[in-house]
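Two proteins, back to back. First:
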Amino acid sequence: MAVEIASVVAAAHAALKAQAARINALNVYPVPDGDTGTNMLLTLESILEETSGETYETPEDATRAVARAALMGARGNSGVILSQMIRGGCEVLAAQTSLTAEAFAAALEGARERAYASVGEPVEGTMLTVIKDAAQAARDALGNGGLPAVIQASAREAHASVRRTPELLGVLREAGVVDAGGLGVAVILDGFYACATGQEIEETFEDEDGAPDLDAIHAREEAWGYCTEFIVTGFAGDAHEFEDYINSSGKSVLMVTDEDLVKVHLHTQDPGGALSYAGGFGRLAGVKVEDMEAQVRSREPHADETKLGVVAASRGEGNRELFEQMGAVVVEGGQGANPSAADLARAVEDTGASSVILLPNNKNIVPAAEQVHELVRAEVHVVPTTTIAAGLATMVGFDPEGGSAEVVEEMREIADTLFSAEVTRAVRDARVGELKVPEGAYMGFLDGELLAVEGSVEDAALSLAKKIVGAGADVVTLLRGKELDEVALQRIAHGIRDLDDAIEVEVRDGGQPLYPLQMVAE
């Protein structure tokens, strides 16, 4: 039998598209991305692209294609949960030969089961509650009419459930709003009803006098970390180990599997670490990283649009906190995770400043940084720092109240006088100049030049330190990476002090991946 489903998807997509902006503004829970409506719409858009113009031989073929497309296109908490609702409904409909009232009610129940199962700790007052109530209404309506009547009953109850969400969730009640994802579910059901009857979608929103207080919503948003999403294809490895690591890496974690594919959504301060880890289990696709803290900052009015701002590329939670304490807007990026010029441009705009200093903190990011001025209205000054440690030292010269020319000059002078060193591990055998580098050895770089190849981080660090101290440095700052323990860090610090009693050694917990240690001296 031939199965065509694009018209149903198109109706749901059209209904949601008409209300996506309003749903976006309602986004409050659990940790706002600011784009619930858009995320749900992208999920439907992925399905629409898959099904448009397609005819499937069996219901099983059609539902398998829909479920896969939903998962591939899912973005954010709301998009991933919606994809699981769709998957649950498709699993029921795969065994049906026609879409009857009974089949629709069973599909909503399947959607409910999958949605709740996809969330580690289900919270009522969200889109989960709405699909649960809609499914119950559909079951209760059986026998009172055909398919259109059952869809209408589920849609009406969904909207009623949305209106009740503040009673179940305190953050909604405090802000005086309803749940955004739940409203998206109700609107999608409106689309299904319109498709089944050919009628216009019933207007279900309050008038402008009852519009939500968006300022109240945004004031309650928790600004924390980066919304990180990716797909692992060809997944191979210990699934429980993978799940434990991802769950420990941040908040609002959602993981969904489909054969050898795993879709991951989480909020984390170190998206690069999560991506690097996941890459060991298969090929990464659909990677998206968004700075949620910047999203919230962008809504805040800037009292002084003429102030001087600074943007720094960085990896590691400790480093991020250090930069932010000194007034920088941080872009996740560094070795192995270089941000694009567009990423840097967004961060420049997030500062709200008319003049912005940009610290790349990696030689591979410098070219992108130098293109940013073409993408923004602000005046952009690149101080070409090549390590995170050097960027932190250069931040000492930043004065948000100073004139841009003077501050840029001061920061460039600081950067030019620094000794910048870093230690990393060789991933293969190599020969660099006269130095033979075996796989697994620790390489020590000073100002970008490979000067030491040793068997341990400590030996490589002390080899570099001897050269730095011999060149007349007075202060050395050690920036501990993710792979270096505190005991080893202190041994290195003592070893440097033993080189010269007069030298001052400071230590910082940076948390950067790939480089167990970075050093900067002046």
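And the second protein:
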Amino acid sequence: MKITKLSQKLIDQIAAGEIVERPASVVKELLENSIDARADKISVKVFEGGSRLVIVSDNGSGIQKDDLALAIENHATSKISTQEDLQNCNSHGFRGEALAAIASVANIKIRSKVRHSENGFELIKTSGDWDIFLSPVHNGTDIIVEDLFHNVPARKRFLKNNTTEFKHCHSIFTQLSLVYPEIEFSLFHQGREVLHLRKSSGLGRFAEIFELKAEQVKVSTKQFEDLKINLFMSTNQEANKKIAPFVFVNNRPIKNSTVSYAIKNAFKNRVHELHKPYLLLFITTPNHCINFNVHPNKKEVHFKNNNAIYKAVYSVICELLSSNDPSERRNKLLFTNSKLRPSHETEIKRGVDLDSLKENYLLPKLEQVFANPSLLGGTNQNSAKFDLGYPIGQLNDTYILAQNTNGLLIVDTHAAHERILLEDLKNNNNQLCSQKLAIPECIDFEEENLKLFENRLEVINQYGFQVKIVGETTLLIEGVPEILSGKKYTVALHDIVKGIVHLDSTSSIAETVDEILGNIACKAAIKANHKLNIMEIEYILRKIESTTNGGICNHGRPTWVELSMKSLDKLFYRGR
């Protein structure tokens, strides 16, 4: 076949395919341009999910009349002019492709007025040519994008419904508003204001976005040589909130597997997967240590030193989630009014006023809180220690019931004992006595998994196990930690191998040790249906009071929950 040079129109549409995936891509590019123009007030108006119309208005520096036509040309930018500028670029945009790409797949108008200029101007396409007219406009720039993909019907067919497309626009808007709390942002859909964010602090903006009080946010800033980590995290963890962490590198939203692994592993033993906190992470590092120019949308980034990034992110999150003061974590069982869902109506017996019940239906909700003791209800300066009260008894030989001045406490015996054992193992410098097996046992694994596990074999043998690899798929057990004597040590070993194999290559030896000790503690802990006497119950209550991270087990589950007198009164409609 004969090789031919593509037309400029086709080149532009191909380039647009890399930059403009959907209406949210348009919102992102235009928002970033407004931010780069040093605007402190930005408005985004979206119609029909952004496929029909997107208007972004700002009060930034504006575009000069002579630059308006150039603004929609490919690779025309005010951000950089030399290779050195590219290496040290701190703006969001630098390629000069966004407006050209948008203009190739949508109808676009630009109105702009430079500060202290008498007139504003409008760039508009008439009869196939770009023309500039006088236009009454405020200081700054308005960019109007209409009929996205009108000339590329195949692309338009792949857009989702308006609700879904607007959700993507809303997500981009939220991301960038979190980075720039000093900017006032407004978001409209179908002419209705959806979100208005006034100028605020970083903590204030984070709290406002996620509907939190300021005291429900923990903040940490750490410097690691030329790497800086800023972290905002909600102290309230709500079930089933599947909101991914917000991660920014030099103020750009990014995806990076190293950072994702660090967050995942830091959460692993400290937060349950159904109760993850909101997290906002800023990584600041010199430009020569990163490469943003590896993805058309700059979504992905390459780090020069992945190990340093992993350790920094992992350590800061662990520090924020962990505490030597047990009173910093509370697990409260709350009852909130909720409309009765149709699926529940079949459970209601005849003779009950359904309409009344729908209005007053109480939905139980677990609220996990970790914060400074002075910010938590139920603690005071006279509290010498955290009080899990005194024992009432045991429920079905599985849960410990206790009471304190706040109300009723329910303790998961296995979860609590598991955390106690883990912290004791750590505090004893991980010294575990080994017990030789009378008859060595063999366990078979997949060859690939055993090879990945082999480089951690020396570590596991330091913690009471005596194991070695025999052949390509077999692990020979000659000894086990004494604490696992008579327990399911083969199951523990299976879980340890599985856990270590799934750790990322950047994971530290300390994480391997946590995996080993966590599994040992889990298998050695008291199980359900184990009857305890009053002295044993008392021991667990007093021990968990003084145990680091005593509010959660090794898997991030709550070890105990508190049902306050106020919640009990609400449950029984007292005072109504």
